Amino acid sequence: MGDFNTDLLSENSLRSRKLLEIIRSSSLHVLPLQATHHIIDGHDTWLDLILSSSPSLVSASGQLPAPGFSHHDLIFLSYSLKPPKPRPRVLHLRSFGRMDVEKLHRDASHLKWDDLYSAPNIDTKVNIFCRLIKDLYDIHALVHKVKIKRLPAPWMTRGVRMMMRRRDRLFRRFRRERCENNWRLFKAARNKCNQVIRNAKRQHILNNLSSSSPVDVWKFLGSLGIGRMRNLDNQFTLGLDDINAHFSTTYPMDQQAMSRTLRQLSALTRPNIQAFSFSPVAEDDVKRIILSIKSNAVGADAISRRMITPILEFLLSPISHIINFSLWSGQVPEQWRMAYVIPLPKVPNPTLPSHFRPISILPFLSKVLEACVHKQLYLHISRHHLLNPLQSGFRPGHSTTSALLKVTHDIRAGMEDTKATVVVLVDFSNAFNTLYVQASVGDISRAIDLINEDLDHVRDWSERFGLVVNPSKCQSIIVGSQRTLRRLEELAVPPIVFNGSIISVSQTVKNLGLLMDSSLSWQAQDLFRFLAGGLASNS
Fold this sequence. Notes:
The protein is α+β, with helices and mostly antiparallel strands. It has helices at residues 14-25, 101-109, 114-118, 122-140, 158-176, 180-209, 214-223, 240-247, 255-267, 283-292, 305-308, 312-329, 364-383, 400-416, 444-464, 482-488, 523-533; strands at residues 2-3, 29-30, 48-49, 51-52, 58-64, 74-79, 89-94, 143-148, 340-345, 356-361, 420-428, 431-439, 475-479, 496-498, 501-503, 508-511, 514-517.
């Protein structure tokens, strides 16, 4: 809710139509109001809007005049919310809080690793390691079942619990001796306790809403019933086997395409550099990587970070041995290749397996091995300059932001030079690849011819390497100053074609999450960001 600086009473204006289109595309609804902005000449406008993704949850909304300090009415909204009631679930947890750390260290120092070091294969080594660690913790931190019936109450401080115990104690006294004095003492303690609980809840909510991270704020609001809620009752109506089959299915490449791809790879000129090979990983490096991983998720091997770090000094040698043996043998332990897969819905009401995306929970030590491999591979690639200098993905200091900065900087430079820029976004299985060419107005036809030639090269390259392009999802846009675009309207611009399909020219396209319009004004992006980052999260 706020001032959108667009008069919705003028429904036929271009600005109002664009705003309403963006609101509808974000699955939001405009709650009805009268004119909210009043000026002396009597031309009242409706600038202040209340948007909601769930109008059925709105218990009251409206506006109040504020002539004493503003030309705008005050708008208000009351939401009827009920925090989600979780279904009871049983967890198997280890009692880490009750461990005697000294005894744990003593027993860990006496673990026998001879069988692990002498084992002939990587899987046997990992099985021995897991067995010894689990046997150790079965002594010092037993696994026990915990039934979770309700959401945690972080606001429940020690002081609040003491007040609740005092209230309950006075109530029991009143039950034993029903007199006016005992009732008065209990009533005073009850009222005081309720006030302390309300204040603690308010302070807890205020502290969480003051977080600098929007992700943390919306995660907290979700726990209160605000935001995108998952329909857990209908989430798995498709069946876990169907969802798992979808996740484990890869795009089938025909044998001809596979043979063609292998021939193309074999024909590539090998760079004149030293061949890559893994080097042994030092224990200090393994320790640094283990301590840098903060996730406490437990994988299929039942070994978590909380079981490794307390006795890390006693485990560094066998862990380093396993990692180095894996690098030397070129094998990944079978246990470390298994993952718990959690299907998360991508849409509010999923009905197809494709409406879910998988979240994989890998064993903790498999992440350590991955980090060791990544470090050596990236060092080799960087040392020999094997990455394109314009690549932004998977490079320190680079991201989609740096990629977009490069594209928008080139477009802006072309606009300052009175040139138009033809941008084509090619869809490779939901990953966008951008082609763009700049040209003066008179050379725009030649620029599009060059773009079409580049698209032919992209088509040939993708076919050689078995990649699939979806022409229906490809986008194109011509960006320039308003004056340049008006001049282009007078010209017969040839079509942009990919593999026989015409890619229509749009006024607005989305590139790596950024909305770009034909004049690079960012109006659509600013409004979309306001909606998507704010009230749209309620959908």
